[in-house]
Amino acid sequence: MESIGSTRWVVAEGYIPSPGIKEDRALESHETFCILNTGPDDAQISITLFFADRAPVGPCGVVVPAERTMHLRAYDLDDPEPVPRDTDYATVIEPNVPVVVQHSPLDSRPEAFALLSTVAFPAL
Amino acid sequence: MESIGSTRWVVAEGYIPSPGIKEDRALESHETFCILNTGPDDAQISITLFFADRAPVGPCGVVVPAERTMHLRAYDLDDPEPVPRDTDYATVIEPNVPVVVQHSPLDSRPEAFALLSTVAFPAL
Amino acid sequence: MESIGSTRWVVAEGYIPSPGIKEDRALESHETFCILNTGPDDAQISITLFFADRAPVGPCGVVVPAERTMHLRAYDLDDPEPVPRDTDYATVIEPNVPVVVQHSPLDSRPEAFALLSTVAFPAL
Amino acid sequence: MESIGSTRWVVAEGYIPSPGIKEDRALESHETFCILNTGPDDAQISITLFFADRAPVGPCGVVVPAERTMHLRAYDLDDPEPVPRDTDYATVIEPNVPVVVQHSPLDSRPEAFALLSTVAFPAL
Q1: CA of B92 to nearest chain A CA: how many angstroms apart?
Q2: Is the pLDDT of residue D112 over 60?
Q3: CA–CA separation, C13 vs B16, rounded Å?
């Protein structure tokens, strides 16, 4: 299949809450960037994080292989530094080939369980 | 009414959790693709699934009649093979006439009840 | 302010569940179409409903005054007939001047509490 | 990084419920506008509120510094007047340089806990 999507995506909402349910990776609080690369070439992706009160961090690089999807958890990003918990942030995702990005946080603090999802904003 | 929408839609987020509430189809964990065909012709729709670690599967074919909506559950897709549970995936939906697609998962695992919805990404 | 938005919006996902919490209008199960008319003229709006297994119903007409928002509950639509509960449907909203539409269902069945929201698909 | 986004965003859905959980700012009922300014210049932002039954209010001004994100709570807007609770409203956000806006309400009334998020509608 040909490449589908955009080469720049923005997620203005970002917040990794405290872990909540800790024994089960599927139910632990997390933020997932669901990335789909439908095309014939691997996607080299640069991720930049923005904060409220300090300079942007990044870019961090990840690769989504050709014809594959990656459900990337924000707390697995640790280069050049981990994404802090309990901190407002925003994300710009820039692949070298078109991909589609959806953002799906899960909050499993006992008093606040929620699962949500939204297509990121395609800027290019 | 004339045809409305796009002939290619992408849902990068996909994950069918364990069944959760099992006695009631309305409350069982599921992922629904809500498809609306406003036009005068039946829509022949090809659905392709992408995974993290293996080749894409499909296309699977469904028909949404003229001037009708179909709320298609992912776990009802079983040609050429069922959508696996507890597995990350992504979906490309390609009708031969314009339709509109919205994606609405419901997670009814007792510790994780959630209902969400997002318009799919229109790529054409 | 000038008119903002589109003159055709589509919501492919529609489902009014059983009432759930019944004593409080704010918490009763409902589907809301949030419509904003920023412009200087009243918006005459035609709403058409589509179903899985019968012909479309409508149009039903509503008016959103100039420079006002209306949070319209689907179950308040009763011309030419009420929106049925526990039934899949989809909606096309066509104003005569540009407006913005967001769709916000609330499900207050005790075993399924959920509140969600998505911008409708702007088709024109 | 260059400026990304739009200079006019619309959120048709707005409703600040009663406070719910009151002891913890992270869990108190609120509506957040997540604004990202990726560009080299501070963003001067005008916010106008629309209601069901009275004239629009505003504009209220906020500044999002260059290369920063602001997660702005609606109830912190108090110029020229606070956003009322338990009232339907809608919002138009107009920066002087492109930004990206996402809308994330949290409802922590005990009978109605919900967390949701959607990208605002980019009108320009």
Answers
A1: 9
A2: no
A3: 18
Is C102 in CB contact (< 8 Å) with chain D? yes
DSSP structure class, residue B96: S
User: Which tens digit of pLDDT belongs to each residue from B1-46?
Assistant: 899 999 999 998 887 766 666 666 666 666 789 999 999 999 999 9
Report chain C's terminal Cα–Cα distance, integer Å. Answer: 20
What b-and-e string marks burial along D20-52, b requiring 16 or more CB atoms within 10 Å of the CB? bbeeeeebebbbbbbbbbbbeebbebebbbbbe
- C116 touching chain D per CB within 8 A: yes
Residues A38/A3, Cβ–Cβ less than 8 Å: yes
Q: What is D55-74 written as a DSSP string?
A: --EEEEEEEE-TTEEEEEEG
Asked if residue A32 lies in contact with residue A71, where contact means CB atoms within 8 angstroms, the answer is yes
Identify all chain B residues contacting C88, using CB atoms and an 8 Å cutoff.
34, 69, 71
pLDDT (tens digit per residue) in B71-116: 998 877 877 777 877 888 999 999 999 999 988 766 666 555 566 6
Q: How far apart are CA D13 and CA C32, in angstroms?
A: 9
Calpha distance D113→A108 (Å, rounded): 12
| Predicted TM-score (pTM) of this structure | 0.88
**What's the pLDDT tens digit per position in D26-51?**
666 667 899 999 999 999 999 999 99
d(CA B106, CA C10): 21
What letter would DSSP give residue B20?
A: B
Three-class secondary structure of residue A32 per DSSP: strand
Cα dihedral sign, D49-D50-D51-D56: positive
Residue from the list A114, A117, A122 with its beta carbon closest to the beta carbon of B118 = A117
Q: What is the rounded distance in angstroms from the CA atom of residue A40 to the CA atom of residue B92?
A: 15
Q: Which of A21, A26, A34 sits opposite B90 (nearest CB)?
A: A34
Beta bridge partners of B104: B32
Is 80 exceeded by the pLDDT of residue B122?
yes
CB B103 within 8 A of CB B11: yes
Residue D34: enclosing H or E segment and its boundaries? strand D30-37
In this prediction, residue C45 carries a pLDDT of: 96
Which residues in chain C have Cβ-Cβ distances shorter than 8 Å to B115? 107, 112, 114, 116
> What type of residue is B10?
V
